[in-house]
């Protein structure tokens, strides 16, 4: 297992480096002048002398490879630069906002699992009957309704009309329910359909027919032979869902006033705060990579054939 983990990590580190360089180059080679944006945020008149001095201070007069090498050297030591807007270290600001986003994404993932897995099993065990048709409608709505619009509807119903839950802020368990539901709607719908398809695949396998022929109780069949075998493929999707939830949280955090990293990044986009945007992409990519590595390890632990295939 250790060798499998090291091999997976060796393939993920180049991906993180490639994403970092790609976004770094896109920011600096795209439309607009970073030096001009820097002066605008610093409220300095953009004279020719000021622009030349800003390019020298920011290192924009060097090649893109030298700029990235300088940034990477600091990033490896935990220094992601200084925000052009707040003039504070980006690492400290990300460390301040990241826990709120992880809390929201983790709660949304929990909602995804608690809703998608049981309903997917229920739909598969009642194929082509009313529970199956009901879950199809639910999944259609879940993947069709944008999460920000669903967030507005949830606020209107539970906060404005009924007054049961707070509309904005991060204050206790009650404040996270609405943003977590809005964030998890699409992922839960996809998980439901994936679990349903996986369970239907297991129901048609030969070993289940033999287990039924042995006279095993229905509860044993469901728990030991159906669910355990059907849960291996959905595990692969959890890593993708987490990335989707982290990305979807950007808009939801703005709707609900959630003080997370997504809302912080949206403000940086509006301000064209390059160091913050670069740090945000690197941190989010690292979280996504580590979550996928964890999912791969769990997947290999549940299905030893994965380790054997990798070793071969």
TrEMBL record:
Transmembrane regions: 104-125, 137-164, 176-200, 221-242, 280-302
Membrane topology of this protein: Multi-pass membrane protein
Pfam families associated with the record: BPD_transp_1, BPD_transp_1_N
Name recorded for this polypeptide: Nickel ABC transporter permease subunit NikB
PROSITE patterns: ABC_TM1
Keyword Nucleotide-binding annotated: no
InterPro entries (UniProt xref): BPD_transp_1_N (IPR045621), MetI-like (IPR000515), MetI-like_sf (IPR035906)
NCBIfam families tied to this protein: PRK10352.1 (NF007677)
Naturally occurring in which organism (per UniProt): Teichococcus vastitatis
Keyword terms, alphabetized: Cell membrane, Membrane, Transmembrane, Transmembrane helix, Transport
Similarity field: Belongs to the binding-protein-dependent transport system permease family.
Location relative to the cell: Cell membrane
Record domain ABC transmembrane type-1: where: 98-299
SUPFAM superfamilies per the UniProt record, alphabetical: MetI-like (SSF161098)
Species classification: Bacteria, Pseudomonadati, Pseudomonadota, Alphaproteobacteria, Acetobacterales
């Amino acid at each position: 297992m250790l060798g499998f983990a090291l091999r997976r990590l060796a393939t993920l580190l180049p991906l993180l480096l490639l994403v970092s360089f790609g976004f770094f180059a896109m920011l600096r080679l795209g439309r607009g002048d970073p030096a001009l944006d820097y002066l605008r945020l610093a409220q300095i008149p953009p004279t020719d002398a000021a622009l030349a001095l800003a390019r020298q201070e920011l290192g924009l007069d060097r090649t893109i490879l030298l700029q990235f090498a300088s940034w990477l050297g600091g990033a490896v030591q935990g220094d992601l630069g200084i925000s052009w807007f707040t003039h504070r270290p980006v690492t400290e600001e990300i460390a301040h906002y990241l826990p709120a986003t992880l809390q929201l994404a983790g709660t949304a993932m929990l909602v995804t699992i608690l809703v998608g897995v049981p309903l997917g099993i229920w739909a598969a065990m009642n194929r082509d009957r009313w529970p199956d048709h009901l879950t199809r409608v639910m999944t259609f709505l879940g993947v069709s309704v944008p999460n920000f619009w669903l967030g507005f509807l949830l606020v209107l119903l539970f906060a404005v009309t009924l007054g049961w839950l707070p509309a904005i802020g991060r204050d206790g368990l009650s404040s996270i329910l609405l943003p977590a539901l809005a964030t998890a709607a699409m992922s839960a719908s996809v998980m439901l359909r994936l679990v349903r398809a996986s369970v239907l695949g297991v129901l048609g396998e030969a070993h289940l027919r033999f287990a039924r022929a042995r006279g095993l109780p229905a509860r044993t069949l469901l728990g030991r032979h159906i669910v355990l075998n059907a849960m291996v493929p959905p595990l692969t999707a959890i890593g993708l869902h987490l990335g989707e939830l982290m990305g979807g949280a950007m808009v939801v955090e703005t709707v609900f006033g959630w003080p997370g990293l997504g809302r912080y990044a949206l403000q940086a986009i509006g301000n064209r705060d390059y160091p913050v945007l670069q740090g945000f992409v690197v941190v989010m990519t690292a979280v996504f990579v580590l979550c996928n590595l964890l999912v791969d390890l769990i997947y290999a632990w549940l299905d030893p054939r994965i380790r054997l295939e990798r070793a071969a």
